[in-house]
Amino acid sequence: MSPKSCPFCTLPKERICLETPATLTFLDGHPVTERHTLVIPRRRVESLLDVPESELPSLWAEVAKARALLIETYHSEGVNVGVNDGPAAGQPIAHAHLHVIPRRKGNAGQNLGCLDDAGLAEMRRGKAATVMKGPYKGDQISVDHIIPRALVPELDNVIANLELIPLRMNEKKNAAIGDRQRDMAKMFYQAGLLSRKGLEAVLRWCAALHGTGEITARAQAVCRKPLRSD
Ligand SMILES: [Zn+2]
């Protein structure tokens, strides 16, 4: 991959949260939690273990800064700092990066302050509780369909496809469908929770959004596996 086609070498300015002469810090495009952050060396090396030793302290300092920022502005209670080294280990982009993933104890509703007395009272009245903490304070809590309901209605009540998140975040997320949705659709299909028609709808949408034939080829490979539910 040339620097021109590397998404990390060509990051739009507005995605960058912090920068130094040697590093860039930005939010992951496919977050596993809200505010999932990446720290990369500007220098394009494939493996983090190829970063010259003299440049490691500057990278680590940025990880510490990202962690401090997540604690201060997002009330993160802990972080996972991680490296996936190589495609087989889950590194899809051949430009070394460190994950800084904010974590909190308890469940999403609890962390957002929805399960206090007032929130529980709202729920007893059949209403959605109000988010009391964090950047989405004041929003109603909402149920998010990881693979959007609009795309495959059959996943409406599949528990594995649901998560609790603030309404505004949900609305923003609903416009985005990517690797996570594609991978989950394949998993649901293989588990017999999603029909072949449903899987194909997700994969076609991914292919249309990302404009690549590669996903279609992978979709066909998945669809050739024996069916369990349809
Ligand atoms: Zn790059």
Characterization of this structure:
With 230 residues, the chain is of the alpha+beta class. The protein is globular, with a radius of gyration of 20 Å. It is 33% helix and 15% strand. The strands form two sheets. A five-stranded antiparallel β-sheet has the order 1-2-3-5-4, with helices on one face. Strands 6-7 form a two-stranded antiparallel sheet. It folds into two domains: 3-103, HIT family, subunit A; 107-230, no CATH class. The protein binds zinc ion. Zinc ion binds at residues 3, 6, 8-9, 44, 95.
Q: What's the structural blueprint in terms of helices and strands?
A:
Blueprint: E1 16-19, E2 23-27, E3 37-41, H1 56-74, E4 78-82, E5 98-103, H2 108-111, H3 117-124, E6 141-145, E7 162-166, H4 167-174, H5 179-190, H6 196-210, H7 213-223
Antiparallel strand pairs: 1-2, 2-3, 3-5, 4-5, 6-7
Helix pairs in contact: 5-6, 6-7
Bound molecules: zinc ion (ZN).
Highlighted features:
230 residues; alpha+beta; 2 domains; two-stranded antiparallel sheet; 33% helix; 15% strand; disordered C terminus; binds zinc ion
Provide a short characterization of the protein structure.
The chain is of the alpha+beta class and 230 residues long. The chain contains 7 helices and 7 strands. It starts with 15 loop residues before the first strand and ends in a 7-residue tail after the last helix.
